[in-house]
Design brief:
6 helices; seven-stranded mixed beta sheet; two-stranded antiparallel sheet; 30% strand; alpha/beta
Length: 220
């Protein structure tokens, strides 16, 4: 079966930039509002329960959430990014994989993070991906998304000092919320902030939950 072009391009781009990406973004560089959403997610999930970051890249956000007490691992499409993550954070688990073919056990996760990773998927694939997130989350489990807020596609041909070729999709938060709801995930917080630093537009963060079964203890 032929691999989709967007997937081949995205993997190749991030394999190319992996080392310089880690060099240029060595730590969590997000601002206070972004870190606040990460902290809220960590508090909602709580310690000792399995969490997965999909599209973890070099592992910097995975490591940040681990520092907030989460039992978290990461998965990324790019072998180059995973290799850098494993070197940088040997105490954490990183695997190669795609969120379009998520292999997490059914209802096996207390939390799931997609931090600026769904922006590389063709938007028509998002409903299926969100259905996969719902399947992987346990009842009462939490999802955190970070995206570029808008409604356009940007073709990247230069990144982190390298020539590349891949797409970045700016996504409308309202549409994402509706797609999450259609997948059975209840959005309970959305934050849209204005651009900071060199950002080209607003950024959006959505917190959603797979509803707990009636009468169930979601932390059991």
């Amino acid at each position: 079966m032929t691999e989709p072009g967007w997937l081949t391009e995205t993997r190749a781009a991030y394999d190319t930039v992996a080392v310089d990406y880690a060099r240029l973004l060595p730590e969590v560089v997000e601002g206070p509002l972004d870190r606040g959403m990460l902290a809220a997610f960590a508090e909602l999930v709580g310690p000792g329960r399995p969490v997965l970051e999909v599209g973890c890249g070099t592992g910097r956000v995975t490591a940040h959430l681990h520092g907030l007490g989460l039992d978290i691992s990461g998965v990324d499409l790019s072998p180059g990014m995973v290799e850098v993550a494993r070197r940088a954070y040997p105490e954490l688990r990183f695997e190669i994989g795609s969120m379009t073919e998520l292999t997490a056990p059914e209802a096996g996760l207390a939390g799931l993070v997609a931090w600026y990773s769904i922006i590389h998927l063709p938007p028509e694939l998002l409903p299926g991906v969100f259905a996969g997130f719902h399947r992987a989350l346990a009842p009462g489990g939490h999802l955190l998304l970070a995206v570029k807020a808008g409604d356009r596609r940007v073709r990247r041909e230069q990144a982190y000092g390298h020539r590349v070729a891949y797409d970045v999709h700016w996504l409308p938060p309202d549409r994402l919320a509706a797609q999450l709801a259609a997948a059975g995930l209840a959005v309970h917080a959305t934050l849209v902030r204005e651009p900071e630093g060199g950002e080209a537009g607003p950024q959006a963060f959505l917190l959603a939950t797979r509803p707990a079964e009636p009468g169930a203890d979601r932390r059991r």
